[in-house]
Amino acid sequence: MSQSITLPSPAKLNLFLHIVGKRPDGYHELQTLFQFLDYGDDITFTLTPEHPGIRLREPVDGVPDDDNLIVRAARALTDIAGRPVPGASIHITKRLPMGGGLGGGSSNAATTLVALNHLWQLNLSEDELADIGLKLGADVPVFVRGHAAFGEGIGEILTPANPPEDWFVVLKPDCEINTGKIFSEQGLTRGTPKMKIAPAFEGDASRYRNDCEDVVCELYPEVQKGLKWLSQFGPARLTGTGACIFGRFPTESAARIIWESKPSGIKGFVAKGVNISPLHQKLTELK
Ligand SMILES: C[C@](O)(CO)[C@H](O)COP(=O)(O)OP(=O)(O)OC[C@H]1O[C@@H](n2ccc(N)nc2=O)[C@H](O)[C@@H]1O
Ligand SMILES: Nc1ncnc2c1ncn2[C@@H]1O[C@H](COP(=O)(O)OP(=O)(O)OP(=O)(O)O)[C@@H](O)[C@H]1O
Question: Where is the active site (predicted)?
Fold first, then answer.
């Protein structure tokens, strides 16, 4: 690879999300089905041997650079490198809404780990990168591994899956939702019985549920309104702890017809569900 590389940092959907328990450390045990979207941010990494350290070319709105998951991921790799590494300048084209349940920050962290592992020639394995990623956020490992998967534990125990690669209308109701706040809500459904993960479940969208939906709809009426509208055309769900909601369609044209008729003012996009992450597709092309 050259000294500069631009890589995708895609969104994920939680096609379903069950909360099956709570761990002693307060984190919730989940069962979920992750699929990637062919839509997301792009990040350009340029090595700057003349300038040591990590620099973000522009801040992400409302996120101090030291808290930015891109910078935190790069620093975590620097710490583990065991030798001096060249500086890096990082430019992000941000498309994913924050607090959207699309895993934007986690995806940015994963793309950074994968990119700098290559550019700095650290040769860390996928397992090692996923372990570093888990310390940054529960959703980072699935983005590092790059295959649609059933997620268990807090999302780090991954079993590769192949749900249908349908088209989605993703809508972003006008609110940002803090993941920690939803997990701390008293009324959250926490006791869904654990099921045996089985491939048959991958295609059976009628069984998909998100246990955060009731609490989120109660706290954020704009999410409830969006779900009601989207449900007219088929099953619609919340992703993660929201705020984004999605409806599934068999073709792009079917999705676009609904997208064109959405209520004015609501943002979002149309995208295809993909089982190999666009990040990993691009890496394969570069090899
Ligand atoms: C809801 C999901 O998006 C589903 O994929 C993820 O589990 C959330 O992952 P994430 O945004 O990376 O979340 P983190 O940054 O790790 O966690 C934010 C906060 O949410 C709570 N949290 C998160 C994940 C989890 N399984 N149980 C929790 O209780 C914890 O209080 C944590 O401090
Ligand atoms: N590079 C980044 N991009 C977006 N958010 C970031 C980034 N770095 C840190 N953050 C912080 O992470 C928070 C969550 O952002 P993110 O876009 O991951 O939300 P999300 O889609 O709801 O995530 P999840 O589905 O994992 O809960 C933001 O509010 C922000 O404070």
Answer: 12, 139
